[in-house]
Amino acid sequence: MTTIIIEKLTKDYGNQKGVFDLSLQIEEGEVFGFLGPNGAGKTTTIRHLLGFTKAQSGGAAILGLDCWSEAKKIQQNLGYLPAEIAFPENMTGTQLIQHTAKMRGIRDTAKAEELVDMFDLDPSAKIKRMSKGMKQKVGIVCAFMHDPKVLILDEPTTGLDPLMQSVFVDLIHQEKQKGKSILMSSHLFEEIEGTCDRIAMIKQGRLISVMDAQSVKKFDRTTFKISFRSLHDFHSIQQEEFHIREAYEDTLHIVIDIDDHQLNMLLRALAKREVAALREIKHSLEDSFMNFYKGGHDHV
Ligand SMILES: Nc1ncnc2c1ncn2[C@@H]1O[C@H](COP(=O)(O)OP(=O)(O)OP(=O)(O)O)[C@@H](O)[C@H]1O
């Protein structure tokens, strides 16, 4: 079942800013990554989904309800984690969690308690005394505590340390298993890499590509840093048919990009030479995405 539908959504702020003719569909049980540089239009799109902003043309629906005219009805099945959380600073975390539960009409706070434990959060402190990461954890508890069918998360791991980022990834996997639909905006590829089924890339308010996360990885090239023992080997490898990205004569090392089918060719070429060191350089998802995209594999 399709849970989120964005159809030709347009909001023009002038000067090429806003969102233009954007269409997307997100399914039940799907984690969908929404990537793009600063100012690309991610938050603008999210504000439409939440019913905070009215589209100039086109629109969006969640669980069959119109995001603008039926925003209130959507609320009970929607969890939202804003990019910048504006909490009432004088409350403690506990008071805010209780207040949110009351507003949402939740009596059973078991899920909230489970999340507090999971993120090792001490919510008893005043919010104004909390670090960015602690506030983020409170935000996560408030977004997930009513067990909504749809989750919209804007830059969800901001301020979380690496351990908590991995707890967050576990939480996303659990929620996905339960059939939740999750839209996650980010400009951090790492945040998206471990969690998403599909990834959309947005730039200057326009959707440039939607791809299966697996295929982004599959089209990855491998980059190696290889050091040689002799100047002769260092020069002769550069006569072979590889894409040498960088070569440093002082340290006798090269950085080389290898397509999967060239791997054996590389090994044969190296076997003829004295290799001092060989190391794989990991690609970011951004590199892979851009490589794939530049290659003309447009999946919109
Ligand atoms: N109410 C508004 N009036 C005028 N321009 C706006 C308004 N809201 C957003 N913009 C502009 O629209 C563009 C898209 O902004 P948006 O916040 O959606 O980007 P984003 O992809 O979320 O970026 P970031 O990663 O920095 O959060 C930006 O150039 C922003 O300045």
UniProtKB/TrEMBL annotation:
Residues 4-229 form the ABC transporter domain. It holds the Pfam family ABC_tran. Coiled coil: none annotated. One of its GO terms (molecular function) is ATP binding. Transmembrane segments: none annotated. The keyword Cytoplasm does not apply. Keywords: ATP-binding, Nucleotide-binding, Transport. The keyword Ribonucleoprotein does not apply. This is ABC transporter ATP-binding protein. It comes from Planococcus dechangensis.
